[in-house]
Amino acid sequence: EVQLVQSGAEVKKPGESLKISCKGSGYSFTSYWIGWVRQMPGKGLEWMGIIYPGDSDTRYSPSFQGQVTISADKSISTAYLQWSSLKASDTAMYYCARRSQLWLLGAFDIWGQGTMVTVSS
Amino acid sequence: QSALTQPASVSGSPGQSITISCTGTSSDVGGYNYVSWYQQHPGKAPKLMIYDVSNRPSGVSNRFSGSKSGNTASLTISGLQAEDEADYYCSSYTSSSTLEVFGGGTKLTVL
């Protein structure tokens, strides 16, 4: 079964760092782009960025460039989203998702279950 | 403000058909055939319903169909069922530096 399994919910304080993960299985992890999508409480989906695990080629939405870092470790089929200094406004559900085809553009056909990040003092 | 414009809500009775629009520009929806539609039930991850404007992934009911005219893409659901009640999001490739944008989402209510 093709699936993406994300790490569990996190509760952090402003200023703390965080790295959440997304582990792929059931397919060639290095062949498909993996994207990250934010959903703030009660709001819509926002495209954050995307990485190609095969060579770590990464693209960011300008809204998130410099605010987060997307990375991948192909040896363990895992993509990451990290923050160096969290803000309360980072409170949201974060989804990873796999491109449906073997190129940068297109749809996300497989989604992780989401990781809820809560930032509060 | 989302780059793609969707109606906030639509509703229909069981068995009816509804259409959700997704309006962009020639830099996104109108210029490329990389429009996708996602269904999201409360507390769940989004699910791909339509890709590349009008293609259905394996396992998605043929009651769901997609189309595009100019800068507006549309998702049509025929034979509405209670289980179709959910939020629906469109997305598109964009030639801007953003690369991809989502619509603001549409809440579908089955009366």
Q: What is the CATH topology descriptor of chain B?
A: Immunoglobulin-like
Q: What proportion of the residues of chain A is helical, as a percent range? A: under 10%
- Beta-strand portion of chain B reads 35-45%
Radius of gyration of chain B: 13 Å
How many H/I helical runs of chain B? 0
If you average the pLDDT of chain A, what whole number results? 96
SSE series of chain B? EEEEEEEEE
Say how many strands of chain B there are: 9
Ends apart, CA distance between termini of chain B = 29 Å
Shape summary of chain B? globular
How would you sum up the major sheet of chain B? 6 strands, mixed
What is the overall silhouette of chain A?
globular
Instruction: State the fourth-level CATH superfamily of chain B.
Output: Immunoglobulins
Quaternary structure state of the chains depicted: heterodimer
- The secondary-structure element order of chain A is EEEEEEEEEEE
Query: How can the largest sheet of chain A be summarized?
Result: 7 strands, mixed
What is the helix content of chain B?
under 10%
Subunit structure (chain B): Immunoglobulins are composed of two identical heavy chains and two identical light chains; disulfide-linked.
Domain Ig-like (chain B): 1-100
InterPro entries (chain B): Ig-like_dom, Ig-like_dom_sf, Ig-like_fold, Ig_sub, Ig_V-set, IgV_Light_Chain
Protein name (chain B): IGL c3501_light_IGLV2-14_IGLJ3
Task: Walk me through what this model shows.
Chain B: One of its GO terms (biological process) is adaptive immune response. The complex is a heterodimer of chains A (121) and B (111). Chain A is an all-beta fold. Chain A is built from no helices and eleven strands. Chain A has strands at residues 3-6, 10-12, 18-25, 34-39, 45-52, 57-60, 69-73, 78-83, 92-99, 108-111, 115-119. Chain B has 111 residues and is mostly beta strands. Helix content of chain B is 0%, strand content 43%. In chain B, the strands form two sheets. In chain B, strands 1, 3, 4, 7, 8 and 9 form a six-stranded mixed β-sheet that branches. Chain B has a three-stranded antiparallel β-sheet with strand order 2-6-5, with no helix packed on it.
